[in-house]
C-alpha cells in the first residue's frame, strides 16, 4: 500500500453501511484496544519542502489494565532545499497501564523505548530513548471526554555525534462523541527542551469515523509553532480492530 492508494481505499470504506448505534472506537485516551493502524502523513516544512511518511502501528491488549504498542515509520521521504532523504525511521515500543477511578475518572501511565533504527540520519534522532508519561481522563458525559497528559522524553545513548535531548511536554485532549460513529477530538501541546532551552507548541484537530465494528478511520490537521514550527500537516489513518 502506498501513500497514493491509501486515500482511495479509505474513501471506499467510508461507503460501507453503518448502524446508527455504532460506537466510535479508539478515540478515548483511556481505552486499551488490539488494533492495527496504517497512517499516511504529509508535513509542509517551515523552510520549504515536505516530509511524507507511511507508518505502521500495532496495539495489543493484554487485559483491561495493560497494553502494548509498537510504531514504525516504514517509509519517509524528506525533501527540502537543504537536504533530501528517504527510508525508514526509528522504532517505538510502549507499555501502557490504565486503571479506573471514581466518578468517571481514569488514570494511567506508560513507558516507552525508542530504538534508533532510522536508515538515514535525517529520518531519526540517532539516539536511544527511555520515555515516561502520566495520564488522567475524565468522562464528563457520554458525549464529552477530557484528558491531560505529561510526558518526559530523554535520550540515553546512541550516536555520540548526534545531539542529546531532554523534553517535557503537557497535553490537553478534548474528545466529542457524535452520532453514527463520528467523533471529533483535538490536542493542545506545549513542549520544553531543557538542553537547548527551546520551546514549541502543537495544535491538532482529528475527525474520526467508525466504519464498521472492526474498521475505523481518521483525518487530522495539525500545526507546530515556536522554535520548531512547521507550515501544517495532514494525516490519514485506517484502523482495524481485532
Topology, pairings included?
Layout: H1 5-13, E1 35-45, E2 50-61, E3 66-79, E4 84-87, E5 91-100, E6 105-115, E7 127-139, E8 144-158, E9 166-177, E10 182-193, E11 198-210, E12 215-226, E13 230-241
Antiparallel strand pairs: 1-2, 1-13, 2-3, 3-4, 3-5, 5-6, 6-7, 7-8, 8-9, 9-10, 10-11, 11-12, 12-13
Account of the 3D structure:
The protein is mostly beta strands and 242 residues long. Helix content is 4%, strand content 62%. It contains 1 helix and 13 strands, in the order αβββββββββββββ. It has one helix at residues 5-13, and strands spanning 35-45, 50-61, 66-79, 84-87, 91-100, 105-115, 127-139, 144-158, 166-177, 182-193, 198-210, 215-226, 230-241. A 12-stranded antiparallel β-barrel has the order 1-2-3-5-6-7-8-9-10-11-12-13. A hairpin with a 4-residue loop joins strand 11 and strand 12 (215-226). Mean pLDDT is 92; it is low at 9-21.
Keywords:
242 residues, mainly beta, 12-stranded antiparallel β-barrel, 13 strands, 62% strand, globular
Q: What overall form do the CA principal axes indicate?
A: globular
Per DSSP E runs of 2 or more residues, the count of β-strands stands at 13
Give the proportion of residues in helices.
under 10%
Please summarize the sheet with the most strands: 12 strands, antiparallel, barrel
Radius of gyration: 18 Å
Give the averaged pLDDT, no decimals.
92
Q: How do the strands line up in the largest sheet?
A: 1-2-3-5-6-7-8-9-10-11-12-13
Oligomeric status: single chain
How large is the share of residues in beta strands?
A: over 45%
Low-pLDDT residue spans? 9-21
Please write the string of helix (H) and strand (E) elements. HEEEEEEEEEEEEE
Give the count of helical stretches: 1
- The assigned structural class equals mainly beta
The N- to C-terminal Cα distance equals: 20 Å
Amino acid at each position: 500500500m502506498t501513500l497514493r492508494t491509501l486515500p482511495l481505499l479509505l474513501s471506499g470504506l467510508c461507503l460501507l453501511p453503518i448502524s446508527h448505534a455504532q460506537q466510535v472506537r479508539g478515540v478515548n485516551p483511556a481505552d486499551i484496544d488490539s488494533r492495527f493502524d496504517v497512517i499516511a502523513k504529509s508535513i509542509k516544512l517551515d523552510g520549504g519542502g515536505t516530509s511524507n511518511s507511511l507508518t505502521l502501528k500495532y496495539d495489543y491488549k493484554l487485559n483491561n489494565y495493560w497494553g502494548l504498542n509498537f510504531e514504525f515509520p516504514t517509509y519517509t521521504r524528506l525533501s527540502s532545499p537543504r537536504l533530501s532523504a528517504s527510508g525508514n525511521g526509528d522504532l517505538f515500543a510502549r507499555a501502557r497501564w490504565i486503571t479506573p477511578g471514581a466518578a468517571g475518572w481514569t488514570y494511567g501511565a506508560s513507558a516507552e523505548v525508542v530504538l534508533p533504527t532510522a536508515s538515514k540520519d535525517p529520518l531519526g534522532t540517532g539516539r536511544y530513548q527511555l520515555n515516561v508519561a502520566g495520564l488522567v481522563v475524565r468522562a464528563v458525559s457520554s458525549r464529552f471526554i477530557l484528558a491531560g497528559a505529561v510526558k518526559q522524553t530523554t535520550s540515553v545513548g546512541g550516536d555520540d555525534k548526534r545531539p542529546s535531548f531532554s523534553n517535557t511536554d503537557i497535553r490537553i485532549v478534548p474528545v466529542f462523541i457524535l452520532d453514527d460513529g463520528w467523533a471529533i477530538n483535538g490536542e493542545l501541546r506545549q513542549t520544553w527542551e531543557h538542553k537547548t532551552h527551546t520551546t514549541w507548541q502543537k495544535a491538532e484537530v482529528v475527525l474520526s469515523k467508525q466504519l464498521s465494528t472492526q474498521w475505523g478511520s481518521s483525518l487530522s490537521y495539525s500545526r507546530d509553532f515556536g522554535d520548531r514550527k512547521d507550515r501544517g500537516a495532514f494525516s490519514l489513518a485506517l484502523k482495524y480492530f481485532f
